[in-house]
């Protein structure tokens, strides 16, 4: 599976949603996650993310975030169309360590 990491937090560009052939993205307040059991590993979303937030499960950056994706994909609503992008998304794009903003 592919995994959304903390780079998505407060950016939520949603370009990933536009290209996913199986609509396996789920939307939280500050970020999206991928349902690990629904993702077919096509990889097309990974280069689309302006925040470079999507990684393969084989990437070390996925270790922390795969369980987060699995947990919240089961709770948050499915998203299949791109909605409004946060006004300050670009300002947050390169901020490191955004996990503390996951729920704020
Ligand atoms: Fe969707 Fe493919 Fe990305 Fe998986 S790798 S989330 S199937 S676009
Ligand atoms: Fe997030 Fe990147 Fe998608 S910022 S919403 S993973 S395009």
From TrEMBL:
Keywords (A to Z) from UniProt: 3Fe-4S, 4Fe-4S, Electron transport, Iron, Iron-sulfur, Metal-binding, Repeat, Transport
Needed cofactors: [4Fe-4S] cluster; [3Fe-4S] cluster
SUPFAM superfamilies registered for this protein in UniProt: 4Fe-4S ferredoxins
Gene Ontology molecular-function annotations: 3 iron, 4 sulfur cluster binding; 4 iron, 4 sulfur cluster binding; electron transfer activity; metal ion binding
Gene3D superfamilies, per database record: 3.30.70.20
Boundaries of every 4Fe-4S ferredoxin-type domain copy: 1-29, 30-59
PROSITE patterns registered for this protein in UniProt: 4FE4S_FER_1, 4FE4S_FER_2
Function: Ferredoxins are iron-sulfur proteins that transfer electrons in a wide variety of metabolic reactions.
Name of this protein: Ferredoxin
Organism: Chelatococcus daeguensis
